[in-house]
Specification:
heterodimer, A: mainly alpha, 2 strands, B: 2 domains, 11 helices
């Protein structure tokens, strides 16, 4: 099942890339389509951040990941490069878990 | 094609483009290590992780797919989230089509390389010739570094006893935050982001795992009704 999703979603992503290079400009050049397309990643990324920090399957939880996200926010505000943001989050979550256990 | 006399020679322009492409490739490689590690920590095999980087080859969608699967989300929801995040590449392609002017097999290959990084380098160039070089050089550099780094990260994380000991479950939200931050330039993105996060969290207890993110995506439809440019 995982393989089916990996291959299916990869095919969908490829076709989207190909469509951009292939379809006539007028189809995607509608201002409303462009606005939704610009807002879609924002809605998805914000939701993913919330879900993957504050949920554990079907329940809302606050655990070491929240501390990790806090560290990531600080790193982003300090304009740290991508890898530093991720490492700061991991290290903070790991330390928090260690201290709480 | 206009043949205007450029201020800098093509040799210099080409060197600058190749330097940018190589730098972007290396930076993305570092990001690929974290993808490989997160994917294996989320429960995918090393082979599945490497297949994602080879075949899907668009970071945001890959992180989303393994992220939703990692919290126990339905595979279909994970796939749908990844595909929706991939829609932005269609708009990049739209912009690149007039620069690249590719047909047939070259178009089929170019399509796989249409990502954030190759688009950014290509559209940042002064001449169409430099833009084409920027697209291909960045696309190929990122493809090579991203896949190599993914394999390294996946094998490295596979050797860990419990990825949570290193806080790897906090890596995905941090990666999403780093991807989101540059987009938060005005009030509308902030409003959409906050409402989307609230919709997702509020629906967690009531719908299957993975679906909250899809519900939150509907918030982007506000773009149909607003007049402001984003």
């Amino acid at each position: 099942m995982i393989w089916a999703v990996v291959l299916g979603a990869a095919a969908a992503c490829y076709l989207l890339k190909l469509a951009g290079l292939s379809v006539p400009q007028v189809v995607l050049d509608n201002p409303r389509v462009r606005r939704v397309a610009a807002l879609l990643p924002i809605a998805l990324l914000a939701a993913l951040i919330a879900i993957q920090t504050f949920s554990d399957g079907r329940h809302l939880v606050i655990d070491a990941r929240a501390a990790g996200l806090g560290a990531a926010v600080v790193a982003v505000l300090l304009r740290a490069p991508f890898l530093v943001v991720v490492i700061a989050a991991c290290a903070t979550a790991a330390l928090t878990r260690l201290l709480l256990s | 094609m206009t043949a205007d006399a450029p201020a800098v020679s093509w040799r210099e322009e080409r060197a600058a483009v190749l330097r940018a492409a190589f730098g972007v490739g290396l930076a993305t490689g570092a990001y690929g290590i974290s993808f490989g590690a997160i994917s294996v920590a989320a429960g995918l095999s090393v082979a599945q992780t490497c297949a994602l980087s080879l075949l899907m080859f668009t970071g945001g969608s890959q992180f989303a797919l393994v992220g939703v699967l990692g919290v126990g989300g339905a595979p279909l929801a994970a796939g749908a989230t990844a595909a929706m995040l991939g829609t932005r590449n269609a708009f990049y392609g739209l912009r690149l089509a007039e620069l690249l002017r590719v047909r047939g097999i070259r178009r089929a290959v170019a399509a796989q390389l249409v990502i954030d990084e190759s688009t950014a380098v290509a559209v940042g160039q002064a001449s169409p010739r430099a833009a084409r070089l920027g697209f291909w050089a960045t696309g190929i550099a990122v493809f090579a570094c991203w896949n190599l780094a993914t394999a390294l990260g996946a094998v490295g994380a596979g050797a860990l006893r419990d990825p949570r000991d290193l806080g790897l479950d906090a890596a995905a939200p941090a990666a999403f935050l780093a991807l989101l931050a540059p987009r938060m330039r005005s009030a509308q993105p902030w409003a959409v982001g906050l409402v989307a996060a609230l919709v997702a969290l509020a629906s967690v207890p009531y719908v299957p795992v993975g679906v909250p993110v899809l519900l939150a995506a509907l918030v982007a439809l506000v773009g149909l009704f607003s007049r402001r440019r984003t």
